[in-house]
Amino acid sequence: MKERKQSFLERLTGAQIVDDGDTLTEQKIWTPAPTEEESFVKQDDDISSDEAEGEQVEAGLAIDMYETDNELIIQSMIAGVTPENLHISITRNAVTITGNRLAPNVPEGNYLERELYWGVFTREIILPFEIDTDGAEAVEKYGLLIIRLPKLDSNSAQVLKVKSI
Predict the structure, then answer these.
(1) Nearest in space to 128 (alpha carbons), one of 160, 95, 83, 87
(2) Which residue has the higher pLDDT, 18 or 96?
(3) Rounded Cα distance, 66 and 72, in Å
(4) CA 66, CA 19: separation in Å to the nearest integer?
(5) Cα 91 to Cα 20: distance, rounded to the nearest angstrom
(6) Alpha helices, DSSP H only, in the chain?
């Protein structure tokens, strides 16, 4: 019997409609956010070799990004990630956040529900304008990562002195 393709709503919400013969039931199935290489609309025959072999797929990371008069602020929930397992790379045009949320040592058979994501995640954020990388700072408070990026002052002028050779 050929398996039914997921509807757009099922792919969007992560729900899966299951036909158990008499009734249709909806099950919530968590899947990692697609990476940049993956498409948001994935066809049944588009399964990558990594997924087919059961290898872990990197998850995305949800963010909020807003600006104030002087800085750009990026926030993300990273609860369960230690600072040693978090890496933030900053250029004037982009920020890349990579981390690893280590799963607790619980035997598979003991789980009754398993919805949290454990494993490697990555998020590359293209910035809407250039920032000053020297003044950037990152802090974590109660599982919320806050990255403060000072805006690059493009209106400031620097005076150059001409040297005679």
Answers:
(1) 95
(2) 96
(3) 6
(4) 44
(5) 52
(6) 8-13, 49-52
Give the residue carrying structure tokens 């995640």.
121
Rounded to whole angstroms, how far apart are CA atoms 75 and 148? 9
With cut-offs at 50, 70 and 90, classify the pLDDT of residue 153: confident
Q: 99: closest CA among 86, 90, 89?
A: 86
Longest pairwise C-alpha distance within the chain: 90
Q: Which residues contact 127 (CB under 8 A, 6 or more apart)?
A: 72, 92, 93, 94, 95, 149
For 56-150, CATH gives 2.60.40.790
**Whole-model pTM over 0.90:** no
Place of tokens 């998850």: 59
Angle at CA 39, nearest 5°, toward 35 and 43?
130
CA torsion sign for 76, 81, 82, 85 is negative
